[in-house]
Description:
CATH superfamily of the largest domain: Intergrase catalytic core
Oligomer: single chain
Number of strands: 8
CATH architecture of the largest domain: Orthogonal Bundle
Structural class: mainly alpha
Helix content: 40-55%
Amino acid sequence: MSKRSSRSFDPHDLQYLQRIGSRWYARVPVPNRLRPRLGPYLRRTLETSDLREAQRRRWDVVTWARGRFQEEAPAPEASGYAAFLSRLKVAGPAEDVNVLTGEPMTNPAVDALIDQVEAYRGPDKDERVEALQDFIAGREPVSAILASYLEANPKRSPTTAANYRKAVDLWIEKHGDRPLRGVTRRKALEWLEEVGKGKARDTVQRYATVLSHLVDWDCRMDEKPPLNPFKDLVKGLGKKHSGGRETYHPFTSGELKAVFKALDGRDDLKAAAMVSLFSGLRLSEVFQVVRMDIDGVDCYVLPDGQGKTDNAARVIPVHPRLADVVIPNGLKASAASVAFGRKLDHLKLGDGKVFHSLRKNFAGALERMGCPELTAVRLLGHSPISISYRVYSKHRDAAALREWVERVHFKLD
């Protein structure tokens, strides 16, 4: 017997009780969100005119009512990249054709979802934006790439097909069912090292080969296909995650002061270094960005096709320290790199300390502040984010990025 049903009798205890005529009923209020379907109350007869018995029986009705509320409660909206991508696919293609003019037009259903993303404030906004970008760009998730590849190669043995599915499942388990475009070599190598622990080298090689083939398949129609991050990946196992490339290190606080002191008399180099330090731009990007106002936010914009990689295009709010800094005209990135290197040679800072170290300093500052990873990759250009400037050009998104950029601080004096 429950504690409630064993309580001593109280003639004034009428909680959940209603008397109609000589009979007692249990009446349980319905939550507001369910009232359009269930009404204000759920009510059941208690089959008694005795108050003491009604007080005992009411709890069975309360338990039943609460179970009903759970059944009727709307399922929470699925969140995250995959859920929003599914909604976009249901909405139809990103572009449609105007039946009156025959001209291409934005699909109104997709347009409505873009508006939702702009106004959305939930914790998975970055994932929704990423799904929107991939959808608009027509980037297929890895599962769709695999299906297309196997369909085009029907003569592959069941064992080979199973090997392909296994490798893709391992990738999805770690990184989700997302496009392979934009995957960096570092990301690919870190994944391969993780899934390859305790496995034979041939097995690890097979994983890398499968993903490499799928990247090539996905990019087969590209005029200038991007570098394949999985190609010859096994050669990098056991080495640093850089895959054999030169490793760059950020400057220490004291080194930063020494670097900018050494740049006295070279205003062009100092301006380029300032921009990189407070924006995270690569040296080549410093001379390619366009500065423009986006809904009241002063921004550097690196258009598609201008950066070092396919993922480089991005929007970066201008740091207050750069308000009056003008990127020098006439100075080429190659010449700036040589001149900057000569300045550093005199400082004897050691290996891995180059112009790119300024970008490392910016990235490190974001990390120390606890900047969300997806926000950091927006600013640093490690993930494809330039497909729909409409989303990022809205003041609320640019302003959100600006909040992180403005918090970056370095003492240079």
